[in-house]
Amino acid sequence: PLGEQFKFGEFHSPLLADADFDAKPMILLLGQYSTGKTTFIRYLLEQDFPGIRIGPEPTTDRFVAVMHGPHDQVVPGNAAVVDPSRQFRSLSQFGNAFMSRFEVS
């Protein structure tokens, strides 16, 4: 491919993997604490998800990617980034500080 021939991944971003093309679209929810982001996700899913934390004080101090799967589990960010079947490989550029606050549920 042209991207490999001109070494596009060395100066701009990593080359895309099959998981990047097969991934479902993602939606990002941002906002101040206690504004209902988690409650909105629970409403859409019609159920709780692993790792959910709700309270009047700031409880969600991390980035959570909620995904469909055969069973409920929480995958730490470091593991999600190196998993070739997931589309999170490019997040590794943000370093360990970000990875410690990222998880897949």
Write up what this structure looks like.
The mean pLDDT is 81. By secondary structure, the chain is mainly α. It has helices at residues 2-5, 8-11, 18-22, 37-45, 77-82, 95-99, and strands at residues 63-65, 75-76, 102-104. It has six helices and three strands. It is elongated and about 55 Å long. The protein has a three-stranded mixed beta sheet with strand order 1-3-2.
Give a quick precis of the structure.
The protein has 105 residues and is mainly alpha-helical.
Helices and strands in order, then pairings?
Elements lengths: L1 H4 L2 H4 L6 H5 L14 H9 L17 E3 L9 E2 H6 L12 H5 L2 E3 L1
Parallel strand pairs: 1-3
Antiparallel strand pairs: 2-3
Write the H/E string, N to C: HHHHEEHHE
Q: How confident is the prediction overall: mean pLDDT?
A: 81
- Strands of the widest sheet, in order across it, are 1-3-2
Radius of gyration, Cα only, in angstroms? 16 Å
Instruction: Estimate the global geometry from the Cα principal axes.
Output: elongated
What gap, in angstroms, lies between the N and C termini?
34 Å
Class based on secondary structure composition and strand pairing:
mainly alpha
The major pleated sheet works out as:
3 strands, mixed
Show unreliable segments.
Answer: none
Instruction: Report the sheet-strand fraction.
Output: 5-15%
Total count of helical runs of at least 4 residues: 6
Helix share bin: 25-40%
Number of strands: 3
